[in-house]
What does this fold into?
Amino acid sequence: MTPNPNLKTYTLQEIEHYKIYGRTDETQNPLPLFFNGSGIEVSVTGTELWIDIDVDYDMHEPWIWTALNGAFMSRQMLAAGTYSLCLFRSMSPEAVKNVQFFRELQAMSEDNTCRLLIKGLRSDGEFRPVAAKRYKLEFIGDSITSGEGTYGAKEDTDWLAMYMSCSRDYARMVSDALGAEYRMVSQGGWGVLCGWDNDPRHNIPSRYEKICGLAEGEMNEHLGAAKPYDFTSWVPDVIIVNLGTNDASAFNQPAWTDPVTGQTFQQRKEADGTYNAEDLARFKQAVIDFLEMIRRNNPTSHIVWAYGMLGYDLTLAITDAMNTYQRQAGDTNTAFLQLPDTTDETVGSHAHPGEKSHARAAQVVIEYLEKYLGA
It folds into this structure.
């Protein structure tokens, strides 16, 4: 391939028009993409556009997806290193092309070296203003919101980065339908109170108030992940919480033992299969506490708790907790939304909701938000 002599290299600071998606520390150069659904959007003329990136990982390689003029264009695994990816070439120079570059993979709490940094862009065109979206939506969740299972065959059961996706999950479907931009805070296996295996360290509320509290280690701290998140910098119209699935699983698992202190933690069931009343109350309180935290940081946002894509085990507990919160806080700007359960026809890889299941759930959320937002 003959190199294009007209390509110019730009850092993000040298580009007047672009849009950043996802929670990040925008003072960083290069720019870190921590979360699934984080990325960059540009509108540019010219025949070619390349993005310069810095990638590393130990166990879980980052994946990305791209869109051109609103249409899905590519999805790929990234190798470690510093290099460039071509986002388009040989196109009509005068036309303005809208390009989106997104991280597919969730923030990896199990791989402190996993990183995806944007160093800059190269083009022979001019960068034009990026159109604003109508709404802002925040999605908070677990592996469902991370899109685990949306790629791969039903028979594929390995826990791998390539099966996790924001390009096919309900959050993107809802946002596209409503013309909204979105941010995501999700982690597979985590819950409101504890993880699927009763690990009480694995709860989303404990990390919610940092830019990316899910990304740990010295490197991520240097990239700004541990900084307090500025909630005033991006105010969502609606916050969709999809948590509780892993909390339900914890009731069926053995006790978790702290490897340092030897202390144990367990959500228990009684001999007759009912939930231990004390442990169920503990879960309900965690829901109430998280609603209080969300409202404290997002005083004007509508809060929707959506649940049910992998069973309805804790539906009553969640709705009871929400009713208690509403009564105690006098906060009626909240709602519960039951999502369709995943079936044999809609399941994806790793026994998680597949693309069809996400589409069914998205339609429920879309119809509700269209009424709420008057879209």
In short: The first helix runs from residue 170 to 178. The CA atoms of residues 48 and 88 lie 5 Å apart. The mean pLDDT is 97.
